[in-house]
Design a protein that fits this description.
Chain lengths: 251, 221
């Protein structure tokens, strides 16, 4: 298939970017979206031009680095699919595909399509961990956990930190990501211990970094490649409210 | 944890917005019930309700709470909106195509339309009661809301403004009802689908309920 591409090019954070148009022939429908970009870059390099910078690592939907905003949707048109798992068969022959970076004040552009998502790391550093030394792997049945609860914690823990929720949200809100992390810990006994402090710290950090507020538009859930539910946002709201109302001073 | 200078978090802003919004939604119910008495055929039932509401000391207090509720809700709504409009300085080239709760994108717009209506509404009724606006000659006294309503609802332009406002109020409420529950952490697979349905019914009842009244007076009175 032949496609037309409109790709955002920007030298670095401080220069102005612009769209660049490309035409690509003989693209195989079996190529992944990133393989298509590799194919484009090969041609650019052979023509003595600067290749398009984009992020990727695992190329199997688990690392969360590959987010691109494709034709108005984070990770492209296919639900529950990361950019690296998206295939060219999802597009039509002759189609124009517009590729943009995540747009958010909290995610400044590094180069072309690569954005700096260290804001997420800062939120994790503010509380996304368990402080107690849990030692080596404990005996599985020492701490009884309801299967439904552990499944729920797992549903939250599948978040890969890709930032599509921020990219999809009209307010650039990071609520779905933070909610997934807060809930994953709050649901399990080891994480419960510090739950009240954790949620307050992570929310405070999230606000400080310039993410927007949540308008409950639910675009995040729709475009999350892992299908994280907005019920976790409600869970975080509960955790936060009870921490503010019930936790003692200093906690 | 460190409690530095007094600064409300995003979630606290939203919680206050939602609580004030829920309170306003309750108020709309009582206001609708009172207004429906206008349809009783003559002014007796409505006048009796106005007399009760105007003389009851508890209602006097509630009036101030209601004012505060509006001011807090509007203030929080505007703060949330300002913050959100700063979070994405460079917009996308292709408009966002994700499926969303449609009316959630226009809350500030529907809110400001409601606010405009509210100001006109207060000038026409409440401020007369307070003596801030002169009593129109057709009204018996400052509590004669029945006559004031009858005269206003004979005015097609006012009726159109009224109806349009309530359509937009309906849009605001369609998103707002379930959103308030989500904000307060009350989203749960057991009852959230029901909350969404109740919210849609609530929005319809409020906007249709209020709209019947001017239509009745314009065409059938
Ligand atoms: C009787 C009138 C009103 C009622 C019953 C009402 C109710 C509500 C409720 C329940 C919410 C949901 C809160 C949440 O998302 O958690 C809401 C949101 C909102 N309201 Fe109102 N509201 C009214 C009037 C207004 C007015 C006059 C404004 C003027 C600015 C306004 C601005 C907003 C905004 C901007 C939001 C959404 C904030 C966001 O994006 O998260 N509302 N309203
Ligand atoms: S919640 Fe979903 S969209 Fe957001 S960072 Fe996690 S995996 Fe990505
Ligand atoms: S490259 Fe790892 S998730 Fe796409």
């Amino acid at each position: 298939m032949d496609i037309k591409l409109k790709i955002w090019r920007q030298k670095n954070a401080s220069t102005k970017g612009r769209f660049e148009d490309y035409e690509l022939r003989d693209v195989s429908p079996e190529m992944s979206f990133l393989e298509m970009l590799d194919y484009l870059n090969k041609q650019l390099i052979e023509g003595g031009k600067e290749p398009v910078t984009f992020e990727h690592d695992c190329r199997e939907g688990i690392c969360g680095t590959c987010g691109l905003y494709i034709n108005g949707r984070p990770h492209g048109p296919q639900q529950h699919t990361t950019t690296c798992e998206l295939h060219m068969r999802a597009f039509k022959d002759g189609e124009t595909i517009v590729v943009e970076p995540w747009r958010s004040k909290a995610f400044p552009i590094i180069k072309d399509l690569a954005v700096d998502r260290s804001a997420f790391d800062k939120i994790m550093n503010a509380g996304g961990f368990v402080n107690i030394d849990t030692g080596s792997a404990p005996e599985a049945n020492n701490i009884p956990i309801n299967k439904k609860i552990s499944d729920r914690a797992f549903d939250a823990a599948v978040c890969i930190g890709c930032g599509a929720c921020v990219a999809a949200c009209k307010n650039s809100s990071a609520m779905l990501f933070v909610a997934a992390k807060v809930s994953q810990f709050a649901l399990l006994p080891q994480g419960k211990v510090e739950a009240a402090e954790r949620v307050q710290r992570m929310v405070e950090k999230m606000d400080e970094l310039g993410f927007g507020f949540c308008s409950n538009t639910y675009a995040c859930e729709f475009d999350c490649p892992k299908g994280i539910s907005v019920e976790f946002i409600a869970q975080m709201n509960r955790e936060f409210l009870s921490a503010k109302l019930c936790a003692h001073k200093g906690h | 944890m460190k409690q530095s200078n007094f600064k409300l978090s995003s979630l606290s802003h939203k919680t206050i917005l939602a609580l004030a919004g829920l309170f306003l939604m309750l108020f709309l119910c009582t206001h609708l019930l009172t207004n429906l008495l206008l349809l009783a055929g003559d002014s007796r039932a409505f006048d009796a309700a106005v007399a009760f509401l105007s003389s009851n000391p508890i209602i006097k207090v509630v009036e101030y709470v209601l004012f505060a509720g509006f001011i807090i809700h509007i203030l929080m709504g505007v703060i949330v909106w300002i913050n959100n409009s700063r979070a994405r300085p460079v917009k996308y080239y292709v408009a966002q195509g994700s499926e969303t709760s449609f009316f959630s994108k226009f809350m500030i717009h529907t809110g400001l339309i409601i606010f405009t209506f509210l100001v006109i509404h207060l000038i026409n009724f409440f401020f007369i009661k307070l003596g801030w606006v002169a009593l129109p000659d057709y009204a018996k006294d400052t509590h004669d809301f029945y006559s004031m309503a009858v005269v206003l609802f004979k005015e097609p332009l006012y009726v159109i403004l009224y109806l349009v406002s309530f359509v937009f109020l309906g849009f605001h409420l369609k998103h707002a009802f379930q959103s308030a529950f989500q904000t307060l952490g009350l989203n749960h697979d057991k009852y959230f689908p029901a909350i969404k349905v109740i919210g849609t019914i609530y929005a319809l009842v409020i906007s249709i309920g209020f709209s019947i009244i001017p239509i009745y007076f314009l065409f059938f009175h």
